[in-house]
Design goal:
alpha+beta, TATA-Binding Protein, 4 domains, 13-stranded mixed sheet, seven-stranded antiparallel sheet, 12 helices, 25 strands, disordered N terminus
């Protein structure tokens, strides 16, 4: 009897071990049931403050030692800094000084952190998002912000709010910078960063506010994504239709097109599942909107995303456009994704962006989403051990390509520039950032490609971070 009991216990232990091993080595996709909550309490909250985060940030440790970080959530730097910035926007004891238009905080040799936003951000929206009830003069002086710097070197700490060619220095001895300073010291002590140098230092150009590394010690994670929408079953589509249209499926009209797309209609609301893996929602406006309100439209968009969208994880506001429809005034908001803190560039020409929503004050007219979820594989392969090329190497290997593109853009012949051509080409670079590239060619387990994304003369070029070859141009 004892031997039989031992055998049973051993069988249970072995079975439990196998189950735990499977969970350890393979994280399966969440599946449709994990992204279609049946109760409102399980929806993902997505506030305006969640939309706003820097695309990257530059840290100067002093003595001209700099690094660039992309994941605002990796350290507490952004959270601590945001608290200090909110205090500056509401304080009544600030002192301000307008700096020269050509002032660049990146040139500082002392301790400083500069946060770059993916687009010009309305200062008014920042104050609303961060619950600043009574903003001060900063909002009027710098109505749109492109970057915010915090100087922490010798003397009193200060802010620099920069946007549209203006730079406003703000000081206030009452603001506590302790957590920001300690976080910089912690990051410096960890030694987990790569050193960055301005483009002007490397190539002798005028670009002293764009930074690249000579060498990269960090590795990129291996990331696979899948499109669950394209494999939804009919019951799952019905459930999502009820969620978007706000009505029981028995009252919703359903149409299946010859190409396999499915359309759900109720009253003046329409939801469509496209074969390319996107979902589209349309709701004709029920009242005229003669005056647009950016804040109200953003609130409407965030509430819609919280209660309707498949997922808001990693989503950030990338572009805001004023639009009109039959005399009604509103906004089109474009959202992109970050995975592991790294921005993702979508390579499908048919589907330009991951999420676009049109909001007219308190009404959502349309919504379109390409839903790509991350699928992790064996933990032994989470990091690609290949060394990635530096952006210096990528520029060097592709200089002739960039030169040809510049000449094509300028419409002038090479001979007209003479010896100045190289400097003109390199000075035309507006931004360089590490990214993931999503080819969007497979519905299941498509691996993202690490790329250096270079923006120049109105275009975006993505170069493979391991080979330097061009993989995308838009």
């Amino acid at each position: 009897m004892k031997e039989k009991l031992k055998t049973i216990l051993l069988f249970i232990l072995v079975g439990s071990s196998l189950m735990m091993t499977q969970q350890l080595w393979m994280k399966l996709p969440k599946g449709i049931t994990g992204i279609l909550p049946s109760q409102a309490s399980s929806y993902t909250s997505y506030n305006i403050s969640d939309m706003i985060a820097p695309n990257k940030y530059l840290i100067t440790f002093g003595q001209n030692l700099k690094t660039m970080l992309y994941d605002a959530n990796k350290y507490g730097m952004w959270n601590y800094s945001r608290i200090a910035i909110s205090s500056a926007l509401s304080s009544r004891s600030i002192r301000t000084e307008e700096l020269k238009n050509d002032y660049k905080p990146e040139q500082s040799g002392e301790r400083m952190v500069t946060f770059y936003f993916p687009e010009r951000m309305s200062t008014y929206i920042l104050t609303k998002a961060w619950d600043v009830d009574n903003p001060n003069s900063i909002m009027d002086t710098i109505p749109n912000i492109e970057k915010i710097s915090i100087g922490l070197g010798s003397g009193n700490p200060f802010f620099v709010f920069s946007g549209e060619g203006k730079n406003l220095k703000v000081t206030d001895s009452a603001i506590d910078f302790t957590n920001v300073v300690n976080e910089i010291l912690r990051i410096e002590g960890l030694k987990e960063y790569d050193y960055y140098y301005s483009l002007s230092e490397v190539f002798e150009t005028t670009q002293d506010d764009i930074f690249i590394p000579y060498e990269i010690k960090q590795f990129l994670p291996i990331v696979y994504v899948s499109n669950d929408v394209s494999e939804m079953t009919n019951p799952e589509k019905n459930q999502l239709a009820e969620r978007f249209l706000g009505k029981n499926i028995d009252y919703i009209r359903q149409i299946v097109e010859s190409n396999g797309s499915t359309i759900y209609i109720y009253d003046n609301k329409v939801l469509k599942f496209n074969q390319n893996g996107t979902i589209e929602y349309f709701h004709s406006l029920e009242e005229s909107i003669s005056e647009r309100n950016l804040y109200l439209s953003l609130v409407t968009a965030s509430e819609f995303i919280s209660t309707k969208a498949l997922s808001a994880k990693g989503m950030y506001l990338a572009r805001t456009e004023e639009i009109s429809s039959e005399g009604n005034l509103g906004y089109r908001f474009t959202f992109r994704y970050r995975i592991r803190g790294i921005p993702v560039l979508l390579g499908n020409k048919e589907v330009q962006e991951y999420v676009q929503i049109e909001a007219f004050n308190n009404q959502v007219r349309s919504y379109k989403q390409l839903f790509r979820t991350e699928t992790e594989i064996s933990i032994s392969n989470l990091i690609d051990r290949r060394r990635i090329l530096t952006s210096f190497d990528v520029i060097d290997r592709n200089y002739q390509f960039l030169e040809n593109k510049y000449l094509e853009y300028s419409g002038q012949a090479r001979i007209e520039y003479g010896d100045d051509l190289t400097q003109m080409v390199l000075s035309s670079i507006e931004d360089i950032t590490i990214s993931f590239f999503d080819p969007n060619l497979k519905d299941r387990e498509e691996r993202l490609i690490g790329v250096w994304q270079i923006r120049a003369h109105g275009k975006v070029y993505a170069f493979n971070a391991y080979t330097g070859s061009l993989v995308y141009e838009r």
